[in-house]
Amino acid sequence: MHNFSSGSPPHHALRDLAKKHGPLMLLRLGEVLTVVVSSAEYAKEELKTHDAIFASKPRLRKICVLELLSPKCVESYRSLREEELSNFIEWVRIATKAGSPVNLSSKVFSLVYCITSRSAFGKKCQDQEKFIQIVKDIIVFASGFNIGDFFPSIKLLHVISRVRPKLEKMHKEADRIMERIISDHMAKATTAKVGEAAAEEDLIDVLLKFHDEHGDTEFSLTKNNIKAVMLVIIFTFCS
């Protein structure tokens, strides 16, 4: 960890270390061993050529690429994006006319979240504002420095920092909201007509096609798997 004590940004420190030790390094960050890849060639070897070795869920990655992020799927949400962007522009127009200062950063974050969450959930969820705040708080806490992450065996550090208990509380609340959203989608799927279900399909509906809580099929997703995928998508687009 002393390699990051110079005051330089972490990516600059890693660049300098790579120049000295090569593009593939194993660093010990406290008690945590971390592999650092600093070249496109090595990254390709890790993420593409040997993807089956490094990726714990290669089938899940394939579903995300072919089902969730395909050009056809992205294009299907065009009207949704246009609607949210139109609402945002109207808000800016009204705020500008009022002549008072506005927090554009917060509003842009809300815009991105609304587009992402509506693509994922199909509609604005009941606890949307609460969920937005949870996402913001988790991003802030997760991106900050927490000494307990580097010395996981020293439980006292987690107690002193209070970061982990706060994150666990936020995760529990986010999980509650996600659980209700998935249950609503499952209930809707059992009552919807075939044509209607296909027309209104969102990202959760796509993942629920592979849902099997007992894992009896060759490839299946539990509710927790689906929650994890959706949270990754939301955090990726909102961070």
UniProtKB/TrEMBL annotation:
Keywords: Heme, Iron, Metal-binding, Oxidoreductase. It comes from the Eukaryota. Pfam families: p450 (PF00067). One of its GO terms (molecular function) is heme binding. Gene3D superfamilies: Cytochrome P450. Belongs to the cytochrome P450 family. This is Cytochrome P450.
